[in-house]
Amino acid sequence: MSDHVRVTVTCPAGKITGVSDGDVNWFHSVPYSHIPGPFADAERLTHSQVVDATVYRPSTIALSIAAPADARALADLPVVVYIHGGRFEHGTHGDRRAEGGPNAREGIITVHIGYRTKLEGFARFHDDEPDHFRGIDDCQLGLEWVQRNIEAFGGNPTNVTLVGQSAGATVALWLMRRDHYRGAFRRAIALSPCFPRESFERRKGSLRMVLGRPLTRAALTRLAGEKPELLARAYSRFRSIHGLDMALGPTGFDGAELSDMPLLLSSTRDEHYDMPAGRRIDARGWGPAAVRLLARRMGVRGSVADYLRAARAIDPARPMGRLIGDAANRRWVSQAGDEVPGPVWMVEFTAADGPALHCAEISPLFGVEAESPTPVRELLVDFAHGRTPDWPEYERHTGRQAREICLTSGRVDLRQDPLRMVREAFDPEGRA
């Protein structure tokens, strides 16, 4: 960054110094909370600070900002807040696939919020409030920081679009719950959300077993300080025990509990289709047998034979790969689409030259490595400006229409009920 110049913004949080390349002002790793301990609730920062935001520090729980270089305070530019994915286990506030340069060049401010992952963010203790997770509460504090400070960077705090992908989409939906929503964003985009099938409370026994000690806040805090490598190994074993699912994360999703606001939901058609375990099973011809054996454990409640038939009709060689993606992501997209009280638009991403995999939509959505506007890119730009999508809402009585966008060709179509096979498999007695 030798050709970059320093730029300082004064806001209620203090003096934040970042760098500018003449088009975009970048502010890296800005602290937004105080965390007293790895398993303690974060606290709001109450004093202004002098912050060197010229360097990205991935190990910190912080946020990053990308703004147009010519943006001035009170310019009322749209704001996109991005929450990264990573199975509730990894990821930071510096996801390059969603870097905010292209947004800034189109007059949109982008904020990436980092949060605690693994046990620090999502283990639960006996004195935690119901449905409370430290990782999600971190994001809540980050959003509140945006509300207090983004005007100084040129953003409009009343025009914030929350965008999350995978685990980040789950966090976004959780923050939309009426018991969590605090008015910090006006609309949301949830890309391939994922929820664990079992609650943390049901998995405490396996975690206690691999830790070999009481599952208390004090015990884990001591372990993190004295023997962090032991804690890391224990978590790795815990994760392997629950390898067919996310090991951690919020559970008990009910779309009817969400606030009434515009929501754009999406999935990729093939999601975790190429996950190594599924790929090996399918390559050996064991896919159909594996689906029959594992479908119930992975959440299928309808006819396994019907699901397998539908999966093989799409790709006869990859039924296990399809089950992994449907169980991890697409079932939740289907449920959210039918349950949320506000207006919802559905998108399915496909590919013309192979499977449309998990995460494939992130860079096109944020305009990274794109030389010209694409239908995927236009989704974010239009929605962030508050424009209503130009295809029908996803509703049962109108046939659950969704937009299909090909990530490779740019082709756009209108599809009828693309998640039907998923809904019939995972919720056979629910929504018709």
From TrEMBL:
UniProt xrefs under Gene3D superfamilies: alpha/beta hydrolase (3.40.50.1820)
Residues in Carboxylesterase type B domain copies: 62-193
Keywords: Hydrolase
Domain of life: Bacteria
Top-rank EC class of the record's enzyme: hydrolase
InterPro entries: AB_hydrolase_fold, CarbesteraseB, Carboxylesterase_B_AS, Type-B_Carboxylest/Lipase
E.C. designation(s): 3.1.1.-
Family (UniProt): Belongs to the type-B carboxylesterase/lipase family.
Protein name: Carboxylic ester hydrolase
Species whose genome carries this gene: Corynebacterium nasicanis
